[in-house]
Amino acid sequence: MFAGPGGLNAGQILRISEKLRHLEASFREPTNESNTVRASFFDCDPEDLEAADPMSTRAWLAFAGVSIIWGIPYLFIKIAVDEGLSPAVVAWSRVTIAAIILVPLAWRTGALRGLRRRWRALVAFAVAEMAVPFPLIAAGEQRVSSSLAAILIATVPIIVAVLAIRFDPAERARGPRLAGLLIGLAGVVVLLGVDIVGRFDEMVGAALILVAAVAYAAGPMIVKRSLAEVSPLGPVAAAFAIGTFILTVPALLTAPASIPSPSGLIAVVVLGVVCSALALMLFFTLIAEAGPGRATVVTYVNPAVAVVLGVTILGEHAHVGAIAGLLLILVGSWFSTGGGMPSGRALRAWIPWRRSRSKIASEQLDVAPCP
After folding, report:
1. Alpha-carbon distance 72 to 267, whole Å?
2. Can you name the residues that pair with 364 across neighbouring β-strands?
């Protein structure tokens, strides 16, 4: 569907529309909690593994594209705020550009049908996934490095496990998942206690980003309760549009007095077009080609990409505390979301993985947060 992370032509958009219509049909079918796919490639049915076909080149390109694209927002957020754009303006520009691209596509594919009666859930989803975290991350990056921001956002699966203790008994962490939760929390302690302890401004920035991570963690719970039966493109596109309205007043109040620099303008355009709209279309392509469970594995790749970009392009320093914290957070996230040690057969199956269309159609997707 995509030749790479570049522009889309009309033929590609039509093929995306067909894929999304197929997904929409699958989401209209009844599902139960046992069909929910976790972000793990170790809980595979052995019979499915035996029958697995090689993962297509198109799926691998989509996987590589999403892994990279969702690792670069922190770089461009940092560039935008360093060029003098306010956090509200950065967030508003991003969601507005994404809405302009995604809403017509969602309308054309019929993904917006049936959403009117779910407007309360859509507003809550827009607040949790965009209106709150986007400006908070930008405000945090005024005080901390882009690398640290990405590592802190990687705590989202751990925060989901913490929130589940109170709000979602079915997802409460026990056994290995509880161990993962504790490992991840230890990673946060190492990160904050070793890397930025004693520097008040950076502690404030880290706190803002952790609040954004809490908001991100609330998003999947909203989806599970109120939006799980609809095509993911519809709620995402609608949420971008709602986020535009919510952020308009803060953006106007903090608008720059003069035209921003070319670097700042390019940064917000990349955030809206590439990191939001294109990334989500690639993500849905990956879902259609490889299945929701395998698609969500990209969330474990993003922080590493962000750290590499921050160090190589912005000259940021990855201290021992940051690297140790990142590793603990990723390991904790893996186990807290149901991951485990792979069997040899499961590990071999991941490399050539491609599930059947019927298997993909039977699965339910928890929409991943857009970084």
Report:
1. 10
2. 36
